[in-house]
Amino acid sequence: MEEKKKEELEWRRKTWKLVSKVRLESPLIQCITNFVSMDLMANTLLSAGASPAMVHSLEEIHEFTPRVSALCLNVGTLSSSSLPAMIAAAKLCSQLDIPWVLDPVAVSASSFRFDACVQLVQFKPTVIRGNASEIISLSSCSLQSSAASMGVDSTHGSMDAVEAAKLLAQTSGAIVAVSGATDIVTDGNQVVGAHNGVPLMQKITATGCAVTALIAAFVAVDKSHALDAAVSALAVFGVAGELGMKMAKGPASLRMHLIDSLYGLDEATLQSHVNITSLC
Ligand SMILES: Nc1ncnc2c1ncn2[C@@H]1O[C@H](COP(=O)(O)OP(=O)(O)OP(=O)(O)O)[C@@H](O)[C@H]1O
Ligand SMILES: Cc1ncsc1CCO
Ligand SMILES: [Mg+2]
């Protein structure tokens, strides 16, 4: 019991430290993302204190990517014209030891998307964050899609994906995060759960994409502790959702109040809401 209490306090301390560090250092986060998520992703990063830049062109990668603090790649609206820039940016980050995060949106939608995600994973993402269906699909070695799990929304609960997430972490070397009612984060051995958030967050498109970008910002300021950074970003985003929900009337106003709550988050409020536990 005493040990559990100590662990809870330690997570609260770590989480606030990372929130403060992002606000202080304002890391530059390059996002090559889908057309749906760009606005929410940029606004989430700004309200957290980071500096977003949606720099997509292949022609700009060699000059721009070496200067960023972290990269966020998202295949939500992948095309043959956007993939080469993603590959070039991932390759540079892996060569230059710049942390980068992959969001394998709807990985089982097509073999084109599945193969692209498998190729990107070879460039050693620091963190992979998806919903449960996406992590289960990416973790299996071949494309096995059913109509129910082909879209961007999850048809599985996050706890269904624990073993798949551990396996993907072991085979890729990445920290793997699965969003859901409980957000799961694993390095292939340890599994941590962040229990914050509200179900209505699923009814705002691109909240998953936005939290992946927030993970990139947290990893940018503490790249040697990527698991802690991923858990903290997920918990902070969930707390912002809980605070926003107190003022929201539906998904559209939750979106606005979530961003406002993230921007205004103070130490006492964060610490009284953060709910992180070890799952094994
Ligand atoms: N049932 C739930 N209860 C609380 N929070 C939830 C629940 N489901 C999702 N969330 C939160 O909503 C956010 C988005 O997670 P979700 O799993 O819906 O991502 P996603 O499917 O990748 O979304 P998108 O593709 O629209 O970006 C996360 O912060 C997650 O913690
Ligand atoms: C709806 C949608 N389609 C491709 S990306 C995206 C945003 C949520 O992932
Ligand atoms: Mg998603």
Automatic annotation (TrEMBL):
User: Catalytic activity annotated for this protein?
Assistant: 5-(2-hydroxyethyl)-4-methylthiazole + ATP = 4-methyl-5-(2-phosphooxyethyl)-thiazole + ADP + H(+)
The alphabetical list of record keywords is: ATP-binding, Kinase, Magnesium, Metal-binding, Nucleotide-binding, Thiamine biosynthesis, Transferase
Under Enzyme Commission nomenclature, its number is 2.7.1.50
Q: Which GO terms fall under biological process for this protein?
A: thiamine diphosphate biosynthetic process; thiamine salvage
Does the keyword Transcription regulation belong to this entry? no
Question: Which pathway?
Answer: Cofactor biosynthesis; thiamine diphosphate biosynthesis; 4-methyl-5-(2-phosphoethyl)-thiazole from 5-(2-hydroxyethyl)-4-methylthiazole: step 1/1
| Alphabetical list of Pfam families matching this protein | HK
Known SUPFAM superfamilies for this protein? Answer: Ribokinase-like
Q: Which GO terms describe its molecular function?
A: ATP binding; hydroxyethylthiazole kinase activity; magnesium ion binding
Top EC class for this record? transferase
Which InterPro entries does the protein's record reference?
Hyethyz_kinase, Ribokinase-like
Please list the cofactors this protein needs.
Answer: Mg(2+)
Q: Which family does it belong to?
A: Belongs to the Thz kinase family.
Function noted in UniProt: Thiazole kinase involved in thiamine salvage pathway.
Give the protein's recorded name. Answer: Hydroxyethylthiazole kinase
Gene source species: Medicago truncatula (Barrel medic)
